[in-house]
Amino acid sequence: MGKPETMEAYLAAAGEQLRWRRARPLVLRELGRHLEDQRDAFVQEGHSPEEAERLAVEEMGDPEIVGAELDALHRPRPQWGPLTMIVLLALLGGFLRVWLTAAGAPYYDDIDPVRTALAVLLGTGGLIGMYFLDCAVLVRRAGAVYLLALAAGIFSLIHSPNISNVSYYTRYVVLCYPVVYVLWVCRCRGGGAGRLLLALAGGVPLAVVCILAPSVTGLLLLLLTGFIVLLMAIRMGWFHVSRGKATVLICGLAAVMAGGTLSVITSVGRFMFFLHPETDPSGRGYQALAIRQAVAAARWVGEGSGEALEPFTPYERMVPGWSRDLLLTTVLYKLGWLACLVLVAALAGLLVWLLVRCRRQRSQWGRLLALAVLIPFGLQLFGSVVLNLGFVLTSVHVPLLVGNLHTVMDLTFLCLTLSVLRGDAAGRMEDAAVTEKPLRIPLFVRYIPIFSCGGTLTPQGAL
Hints:
The structure is a single chain. The protein has 22 helices and two strands. It has helices spanning 7-15, 24-44, 49-60, 63-73, 80-100, 113-131, 135-140, 142-159, 170-173, 177-188, 193-201, 203-212, 216-235, 243-267, 270-275, 286-297, 315-318, 327-335, 337-359, 364-388, 404-422, 424-433, and strands spanning 162-163, 166-167. The longest helix is centred in the middle third of the chain and has 25 residues, at 243-267. It is elongated and about 100 Å long.
């Protein structure tokens, strides 16, 4: 085959060497720009357009060699280490749920080893599918993903059964909302104050669904993740506004919401009951007291002392929720402090490992999308440890270890992070390439002066 003499033929020959389909159009676009720059330089020297194009192609070199070098440079980065650790922790969680809860079979009929095994298998399938997902598709379709997630929340509010005054399926739907909100922020990037306000406003419907569920855990995860992500987006210059003023606005809103939440908790005495459950006149502090009694009975290695529990009361009958959210307490009582600390250390180690890799992520939207998974993971891990030590404020599951549907969701979202890290080579090129359809912003929003550095914003039609 002869050497190509046109840029189109050159790019086709180089593209045949690129095996990663996601990176191919991005790499060829950059290569095409270099060829155009060289062609224009030859035209300025007095060559005809056809001659300039031929010279530009010759100067670039052999397309197969160039394509092979670009293929080696832009390849997926396998994440086999974290992937293996995630699967092993999920398998360990399934084993512990079946093994440690077998003694509770005479007291509870919801312990089903088959469902547990099926959840791990389904979660592993979701893990593999998400691992090979092109995450840029989610960013490009962020608006559609947001509307779908909001519709799913509303649908579940209407049709989901209420168990203990909580919409059962909605509490799972809202766990997706931190990721959905980050995608919405990616959707709004690139504009001025109007886009920033639109990014803020996008969190309101999601928060309303959390409140209507009601899901305190889902609301806290959404608000805290959204706060951190918005601050990072402002710092990275995603919005053409004064960073100082925008940061003050976000922090002010966060302070108002935190103050409102604390006032509600204080007014109903929840914080006092959190520290001293024995003072709860309604008797709802029983669970916290039972947990603390089991913790006090735990030994360093082996099963805890039965004499420290209520007289003639098996552990399984004494601690409500011992087979679900309180699995760490069960590990602590039945296997000892050492086993529980090793388990928590493994989860914390996985989190730190992924956070370090996330920090090295060169794609801005990829970094934020990974954090949308890791921040809730860390918050749930911390909250579950606090809960399992007897400080009860809200229900929090132990990531990867507790729950059937929870396990499927944890595996899927953690592998979304691995997919982002795997595609970093393409993600950094997609930062500038990811574009959205124009968003129509109301005219009054485009005249807000508080963020602009030099007065009122100029209306731009569609942002």
